[in-house]
Amino acid sequence: MNRNFIDYLDTFQEKNDTDISLTDYHLLNNYILTNYYYNNFYQDHLHHMKSIHHQQVTRPSSLYYDCYSQSNWNSGQDMNLESNYDMWKKNNEFRLDVSNDSFHMALPPSPISQKKQKVTIDTNIVAIDDLIRIINSYEVSDTIEYNIDLESLHNIKDELHKLNNMIGMVELKKTILYQLLYFIQKLHEGKNTSDFKHTVIYGPPGTGKTEIAEIIGTLYSKLGILKKNVFKKVTRSDMIAGYLGQTAIKTKTVIEESLGGVLFIDEAYSLAPDSSENSDSYSKECLDTLCEALSDHKHDLMVIIAGYEDELNNTFFRVNKGLESRFIWRFYTDSYTNQELNEIFHKKIIEQEWTTGIDTIEMNKWFETRMEHYPYFGRDMELLLMYTKIAHSRRVYGKPIEEIRSITIDDLNEGQSLFLSNKKKQKNKTVSVSLQAMYV
């Protein structure tokens, strides 16, 4: 019967005294039992076996005993079993021929490692597509040595696809690519290195800033640059309290919960003071605490803030001059064109497993004449699709099954009417609340 040596050891404890042969004992005594750390069970167990007398045990002269006399398992060192078991198993996984209470153990392969084949990958990288092309063209192999860290690229394959599939953002993707190539080569590490990972994403609402921040956080978590897959999104209320002293405590708590990952502050200008004197004190306390943490935890924390460029520069960065120098990475999300807005809308239709028979050219023209109604881009596309589906539900009620979940131009026009009607109601409600506040 042929089986692995590791399997032999794993089943040894299940044997009865009568099942243990003298040859078994010789193997275990010379190969394993001489190790101080691992022999507790076997020494205690074997020396009480009636089927084997102590005087019968002599050290065999066979080569397969002596060749392991200097192995890690016989070194007398206290080694961690869990961390070293895989290495030990790899070095000692050879065959046993066990039959009729005797066995023959073959010598293991030579410990000299096999020479790896060297392969040079073209690294003319100008876009995320180039990294994806490399991943699709080359597999990680123990027998091949590449000129780049291919395994790390394979680890972030899904995130690269997500980023690359986002509509538009050509310049932003290029900047993220530069940041990625910098960190993946660990060029931020070294003696007296003081590089920060903190990042600003400029852009209007609805341009995917939160999604981008989440992708960045996952990228660097999988690369080991961030030690935990933590993504904490906060607002002003999570960091600023109603009285002095407590704001610093709230801010420190948020920072501690984000260590090892990403702290994302959307519309970060809301942390800056408003017109009231007390608000100025609370905000300054928050931003001073944050600024200190940006330096103290630069190795295990990535803070990403987002918002309009002018508002961030005139509020957030104005309160504490030290903040700006700590956010060295700047990304820009541009406003979408009518074609890109159409692509976003169509993508959401597909994701929700609906269809549309509207021609692409017709859809582009439709959005081109209505762009002013959708200043929040991606957010507005979610609302437009919801109202379009509501309009569709009224039209197809009682109709054949093949018409259901297929959006027409009539559905889209009616959906926009619902969108604008609800938008007007929200605007009137906001104005009404503001007027009421004037007379309180």
Automatic annotation (TrEMBL):
| Keyword Cytoplasm applies | no
Q: SMART domains per the record?
A: AAA
Keyword annotations of the record = ATP-binding, Nucleotide-binding
* Keyword field contains Nucleotide-binding: yes
Question: Which positions carry the signal peptide feature in this UniProt record?
Answer: none
Q: Which GO terms describe its molecular function?
A: ATP binding; ATP hydrolysis activity
Q: Check the record and name the InterPro entries matching this protein.
A: AAA+_ATPase, ATPase_AAA_core, CbxX/CfxQ, CbxX/CfxQ_RuBisCO_ESX, P-loop_NTPase
| SUPFAM superfamilies (alphabetical) | P-loop containing nucleoside triphosphate hydrolases
Which Pfam families has this protein been placed in?
A: AAA (PF00004)
Q: Where is the AAA+ ATPase domain?
A: 195-341
Against Gene3D superfamilies, the record matches this protein to: P-loop containing nucleotide triphosphate hydrolases
Q: Which family does it belong to?
A: Belongs to the CbxX/CfxQ family.
* Protein name (record): AAA+ ATPase domain-containing protein
**Can you name the source organism?**
viral metagenome
Q: What is the lineage of its organism?
A: unclassified sequences, metagenomes, organismal metagenomes
